[in-house]
From TrEMBL:
Superkingdom of origin: Bacteria
Cleavable signal peptide: 1-28
Keywords associated with the record: Signal
Protein name: TIGR02597 family protein
Length: 353
């Protein structure tokens, strides 16, 4: 499935990883190493003449294979608004800038620890520097990346690599007949499908005829998958468990979409989403309040925070202990009372090294 060099022999059942992870938040156990393994996402079959939604996040990070040339992690020596450099990285020129095998650079220490940027696929990396793409206006300098901060390179999937081998089962001649993959690019929702027409056989966006095979699945985001087929599909994802924090961008208006990147169920109150800078609580005006939205496997749930507890819509029930299943991505919808600009936020890590 993954076109990056994969450590395919280093597999273990994700059931064991999840069982391990599920006990961590409650018992405050400590992870001693980042487990490497596999997970299976079941893309649920649609009812007759209907569709079925499955949401999921790329919980496991793709390990870098042995053929990767240069440092997979190191220390930043210089930083600008558009690039991150390591004078001793020794990357092979252009190796991080291939559209079919994209990469992110994640900062792992310092004020911006957890922030990540995609390496540009139009400006080839040099042996020591990588041009990065904008993160909703949050460039490395603006968020506090400094020389001396550590980083790691993260391989990521594209539509073509994530769903490789399933094309005949999920495709169709147009967006209305094929399964749909909905992702958020940081600014807007986008809907893709695999056009299985003979002579086309590529990913397309809506009614556009452009090839979208290399659309990137952002590593701390998620996927809203709409199935039209009448059978379940088992999508296997390989990689390592995330053991540190990721930062994600919450836009000033509209929707922001981020992943459930830890393989554990979480109670809504433990995510501390109401602590996001500028988060608007419900002071009696539900339209003005920010909302947290997720799909529970059957329907979308829409929550707001009243300053003390989470509520669902206009209901008076306390939803602080509502469980967000492992791997479930979350939408933050800004209310009419939202002000200011986009911010970087993160969720608490439920375990530690």
């Amino acid at each position: 499935m993954i076109s990056h060099p994969m450590l395919r022999t280093r597999l273990s059942a994700l059931t064991a990883l999840l069982a391990f992870g599920l006990s961590l938040e409650a018992s405050a156990q400590t992870v001693t190493t980042a487990p490497v393994g596999a997970m299976t996402v079941t893309l649920l079959r649609a009812p007759v003449s209907g569709t079925k939604i499955t949401t999921f996040s790329p919980i496991l990070r793709i390990p870098i294979g042995d053929s990767f040339s240069g440092k997979a992690a190191g220390v930043i020596t210089t930083v600008s608004t558009t690039s991150i450099s390591d004078s001793t990285a020794n990357w092979s020129v252009g190796s991080l800038s291939q559209a079919a095998t994209p990469y992110y650079i994640k900062v792992t220490s310092g004020a911006a620890s957890g922030a990540m940027w995609q390496v540009s696929t139009s400006a080839a990396n040099t042996a020591s520097s990588a041009t990065i793409l904008s993160l909703s206006g949050k460039d490395p300098v603006a968020v506090g990346v400094s020389a001396g901060d550590s980083y790691e390179i993260i391989p990521v999937d594209t539509l073509s690599t994530l769903f490789a081998g399933f094309e005949n089962q999920i495709g169709g001649p147009n967006v209305d007949s094929a399964d749909n993959v909905k992702i958020h690019d940081g600014s807007a929702w986008r809907i893709f499908y695999y056009n299985s027409t003979q002579g086309v056989q590529q990913w397309r966006e809506g009614s556009s005829s452009f090839n979208r095979n290399n659309i990137v699945i952002r590593p701390n985001s998620g996927v809203v998958y709409t199935r039209r087929g009448q059978t379940d599909l088992a999508l296997m994802i390989l990689g390592k468990v995330v053991v540190d924090a990721d930062k994600f961008v919450v836009s000033a208006t509209g929707a922001s979409f981020f992943g459930g990147i830890y393989p554990v169920d979480r109670q809504l109150s433990t995510l501390n989403l109401n602590s996001i800078p500028g988060f608007v609580i419900n002071n009696g005006n539900l339209d003005a309040a920010d909302k947290v939205k997720f799909h529970d496997g059957s329907s979308w749930r829409l929550l707001n925070f009243n300053g003390t507890q989470w509520r669902e819509g206009s209901s008076g029930f306390n939803r602080n202990t509502l469980v967000i299943p492992a791997g479930t991505p979350i939408v933050i919808e800004r209310g009419s009372g939202a002000t200011g600009s986009a911010v970087l936020a993160s969720m608490p890590v439920p375990y530690s090294l």
